[in-house]
Every structure is written in structure tokens, then in C-alpha cells.
Amino acid sequence: MSLTATSRSEDDHQDLDSHHVKESNILDIRSGGTLAPPETTGDRTASAMQREGCAPGGDDNTVYPTGARLALLCIALCSSVFIVALSNTIISTAIPTITSVFNSYDDIGWYSSGELITACAFQLPFGRFYALLNTKWTFLGSLIVYLLGSAVCGAAPSSIALIVGRAIAGIGAAGVIGGTFIILARNVPLRKRSLFTGLIGATFAIASVVGPVVGGAFTTKVSWRWCFYINLPFGAVAVAVILFFLPASIGRSSPTLKNLTWWETVKRFDPCGTALLLPAVICLVIALQWGGARYPWSSGRVIAVVVVFAVTFVAWVVLQYFQGDEATVPFSMLKQRTVFAANMYTLFLSASFTILVFYLPIWYQSVEGNNAEESGLKMLAIIFSLTFFSLAAGGATYAIGYYNPFLILGTVLTSVGAGLLCSIDIDVGLGKLMGAQILCGAGIGMSLEQCNIAIQAVLPADKMPMGVSLVIFTRTVAGALAGPIGQAVLQKTLAQRLGQTVASQVYGQGGAVDVRAKLGMIYGDDTPALRSALDGFNDAVTRTFMVAVILAALTAPFALMVEWKSVKKEKREIGDKIEREEQKDEGEKEKVQRTDSPSRDQSV
What we know:
Layout (H helix, E strand, L loop, with lengths): L15 H9 L21 H6 L2 E3 L6 E3 L1 H24 L4 H8 L5 H25 L2 H20 L4 H29 L2 H32 L4 H4 L1 H15 L9 H4 L3 H7 L2 H20 L9 H24 L7 H4 L2 H30 L5 H7 L1 H21 L3 H19 L7 H18 L2 H9 L5 H35 L1 H8 L7 H9 L4 H26 L2 H6 L11 H24 L8
Helix pairs in contact: 3-7, 3-8, 3-10, 5-7, 5-13, 5-22, 6-7, 6-10, 7-8, 7-22, 8-17, 8-18, 8-21, 13-14, 16-17, 16-21, 16-22, 16-25, 18-20, 19-20, 19-25, 21-22, 22-23, 22-25, 23-24, 24-25
């Protein structure tokens, strides 16, 4: 028997992943190793793949799940995203009841921010987990942690227990959201991926908007505890499907990562960077939640938290710079044009979306006097619009191969729709409200998830988890930033129009709960003074919509900056360049070894 040496010829039409497979299968005779063929379409019969619910992925010879298996995975991922997104807003209408049960008004801010803080803090570290560990078990672990946190919240005997449960759920949520897109990227070809990310994006948006309605229904008709218990059956189904139908794939996709030793793997987790990043993100979110709301920005507590954030964040940035490609967020990745532009686009559009979905229900409940369920029904326009255009844009991207047109059009439609909302008053017609919501939903739906596809199109497989985690982290931070900004604008305008005393009475405690009733108690029912006060509140809310317009408009230059790269081409040229630079040293070492032992490359 004889084994001939494998030649290293570059084929311009060869996919990067296929190139890696061939490189990793060179038999090292010196170590006495055995050849384990990779799982490609050439190694398996068509009937075998059909029995397993798989199909060839196209140019890269990767085998992807199809049919019922793919459908079940998609349902499980959508269920996971739905319960995580639902928990972000479902608690908003339950907070007044929870505070009365626990007599814990001082803890209101922690009920909403407890999960947000840990979700932000652990998002980037989870990118490393998915890059280095088993994708299936990392996702399952994240989902189980999230369900554990939900169970703690539902059974919480005290306010502190509820806050702890929210923090635990936030850790799991960080792994679930990022892991969903990473699983899609590893189980769906790039050219079809926009279809599925559109569905995931629509699921997230629907859950975010219907959350207050569902929370209000549970609180008034069953118990506020079911705002958390509802996650358990959905999560259990997702766990079962993922357990039996998701392949147990290892995150390491390049030869460099596959050959890491145990200690090298530990270092790739960037423990020092994580130790600096966690307190930095936690302090940032706490400062945003406290500043101007619970404490003035000039208070010692807020200043101390900001200082800790600044020191730890600067130290983290310096560490990331010196760590190079082993950093949690490599600077080389941030310098890539599309990665930078897509993250900035996500930052501004997500912040605009957060303001719209948070302050539109406040307008309905405060100015029109609707309850949570009624305001939720009036939000159906933006829900249906966002869902339809998210799916339609995914299909159109699959058809034409480019996501750029939807980024540009999304900027225009969102800006116009939010601009229309700036002009509403207490006598506005329902048609104008619905039209503005449809435009906003269309713009956000068709564009937001395209950023994820753009990043996946330009990054190599082993850097894709970090890229996905970065864009999810950006989206989470955008939500954390948008809330305090909108709150500051609203409170300042209310103080100017109604006076500080009245503004504090109607909005200072419990937020926008029974605002119209409180104003009626102060000014009397159906009086000119009440109408003037409602005009003032209307002006305050529409000022926040002006912030949404500005944020949406700021996405324009970044929409133009994203590279025009077809998702129909599985080969990623920019990813090729990054991967080849990483393998340069490895190739030189092999040449030296072959020079030292020329006889070992001959026939045996």
C-alpha cells in the first residue's frame, strides 16, 4: 500500500470550508495516525442523508438538516427566542401588582434591569463559548439556566428572590439569543439564512410587543407569577427538540482552533478580559438605570458607578488590543468595514425601535386612557407590519442575493414613520396612527436582521460566533441606552409643561400607570385644564418620538458603508484573507518539518 503526499494547490473557485476539510485530512505518517474521513456529501449516499433529514449544502459540501428535522429545529429556536423576548416586556404591566405584594417600591428598577444587566454582561463571553465549545450543549445549558431563573422568579417569596431570579435568567438569555443565530448559521446555508433570520427577528419583535398585553392578562385574571411560569412549558419543548434533533457539533472549525491544547483553550476564553468586561457592563447599565431616575447624575452613587465603569472599560480595551486575535473582540474584526457598519446600524436602529415600542403604549394609556390590553391591540399594526416585512425581506434577500437595498429602504421608512408619530396630538385619527406604525414596522422589520446576515457573509466560520455575539451585544446595549434617553426627554418636557410637582405626581411613582386618572384628580374631569395637561403629556411623548427619528436617520451612512456581497456565493473572500493569515505560520512549520524528513513524504 502507498500513500502519496497531498499537494497544496489553490483553487480560486474552491470554498474556504472545503479547503479546511482537505487540509485537516493530511495523514501524518510519522505519528502513526489513522485517517478519519470528514462527513461530506461524497462520503454518504443520498438515501442515507434523506433518512437522517439532511441534504448537501451546496458549494462547501457541508451536510445541512432539511425537511421535518429543520422545521423542528426552527420551531425550537423560535420558541426559545419568544420566551426570552417576552420576559423583557411582560413584566411591565405586572410591576404595580408585584410592588404592592412585596411592598417594594424601591426595587422597581431592579425588576426590569436585573435581567438586562446580566444579559449584557455575558453576551460577549458566550461568543467565545460557542466558538470553542460544543454548540449543542452550550445552547442547552443556556436555555436550562434561563428556565431555572424563570422558575425562581415565579416562585419568589420575596423581592430579593425575584431580582436574583431575573439575574439568573439574564445569564441564560445571553446564551440563548446569540446561540440561536449561531445554530442557524451552522445548520442553514448562507444563501438561505436570511429566510430564517427574518423569522427569528419577527418572533422577537412579536414577543416584545405582545409582552405587556400578556402580562396584563395574567396579572388581572390569574397571577403575576404566570408571567414567569409561562416560559417553562415552551422551554421544555425547545429543550427536548434541541436534545434529539440538533447535531452535537464542535465550535472549532479551523485547523488552528482544532489543534489547541487544554491550556491554550482556557486562554482563548480570555478570563482576564471577561473579569474586566463583566463589572464594566454591569456598572454601565446600573448608571443608566439610576442616573436621572432614581438618583440625580450628580449623586455620589451614580458618579462612583460611572468611575468604576470607565476604569474597567479602559483596562478591558487596552487588554483587547494587546491580545490580538485571541481577544474576546479582536480589533482586526472591528476594523472590518461591514462588521463596524452593521454594528453601528444595529445600535441606532435598535435604540429607535426600543423607544417606539416603549412609548407608543404609554401614549395610548396616558393620552387616550386605554388599558394595557387595549393599547396592545392598537399595537397590532406595527406587529403585523414588522412580521410581514421581516419575512418578505428575508425571502427577497434569498432571491436577489443582496441585503443592502433593505438596509437603505429600512432607514427611510423608519425615519418617515417615526416622523409622522412626532406630529400626532390628542385628536389624531386612527388612520394616521396605524399608517405611521405600519411604516415603522416595515422599516425595522426589513432591515434589522439583515445586519446579522451581513456580518456572517464576511466572517470566516471560526469568527462567526464572535461576530454574532457582538451584534447581539450591540442590540442589547442599544436597548439599555434608549430607555434612559427617552425617560430623560419625557421627564424634562413634562416638568416644563406641567411643572415639576405635577409631573412627579403623575409619572414619578410607578411610571405611566393611570396617568389620565391622576390628571383627572388634579384638574377635574372634562375641563379645559385637563385638556391642556393632556396636550402637555402628548408633547412630552412625541418628543421621545423625535429622538427615535434622529436615531433612525443616523443609520443612513452605515447602510451605505456595508459592502455589497452576494449571499448566493458561499465563498467568503474577506473571510478567506483572515483565515489564510492565521494559517501562514502553520504552513511554514509544516514546510520545515518536511524539509527535515524528506523521505517521509514518499511512498510507503
